[in-house]
Amino acid sequence: MAGFLTFSNYRRVLQKMLWEIRAGRRASAAGARLAPGPLTVMEDDPRHDQRFLMERAQAFGPVFKVWMPHKLTTCIVGHALSRRFLSEHEGDMRAATPDLSSLFPHGFLRALEGAPHKFYRKLFAEAFRATPIRSDDPIVRQAVRTCLAGMAEAPQPVAVEAIRSRIRSLAMDLMLWFVLGVEPGSDLARRVAAGCAAYAPDGAFLVVR
């Protein structure tokens, strides 16, 4: 029943309480406090509502905390505020990524720090600036249309997982086209996408600790 906890959820509730207490103590020791917002664990997870985070932002402001889904997560809304946070706390965060250093020098770009990060970031930036990207590119427009049409044809309101799947597929199509020149829908594009799905079925890790 919606709003009531089952026995299986008690572990989640206890875990949530311990996380909140621990995080609150660490924040207090640093002279800070946790962001506003309740950490509710319900049988019917409110995160399945596409408007959940928007409603939280309206209720508590651009910085608030949520339980997503097995850890306390602080959300920051707005491009300017997010960039300010990243700029002011660059040395306080570490991107959690798989170790691919055996395949690529230094591993993932987002996990690099210091001189290696500046060096490789410059190479990627120059490569992307040299890539002609036009908003009226018919291949790009078709990829976006396919993504939007798929969501429009899905049962409404569109489930969060369906949106993620469509956006992930669109991002893959555009990345392959912009970076490698592989046309979306081609046999090579399907093989690369299948390989990525086999390696990371839930998508690449984007967790920041």
| SS-derived structural category | mainly alpha
User: Radius of gyration in whole Å, from Cα?
Assistant: 20 Å
The portion of residues forming beta strands comes to: 5-15%
Strand order of the largest sheet: 1-2
Number of DSSP helical runs: 7
Distance between the termini: 34 Å
Write up this protein.
By secondary structure, the protein is mainly alpha-helical. It has two domains: 7-93, no CATH class; 100-204, no CATH class. It contains seven helices and four strands. The chain has helices spanning 10-29, 52-60, 79-88, 114-129, 138-153, 160-180, 187-199; strands at residues 63-67, 72-76, 95-96, 207-208. The protein has a two-stranded antiparallel sheet. Strands 3-4 form a two-stranded antiparallel sheet. The longest helix is centred in the C-terminal third of the chain and has 21 residues, at 160-180.
Features:
single chain; about 210 residues; mainly alpha; 2 domains; two-stranded antiparallel ribbon; 7 helices; globular; disordered C terminus
Topology of helices and strands:
Elements lengths: L9 H20 L22 H9 L2 E5 L4 E5 L2 H10 L6 E2 L17 H16 L8 H16 L6 H21 L6 H13 L7 E2 L1
Antiparallel strand pairs: 1-2, 3-4
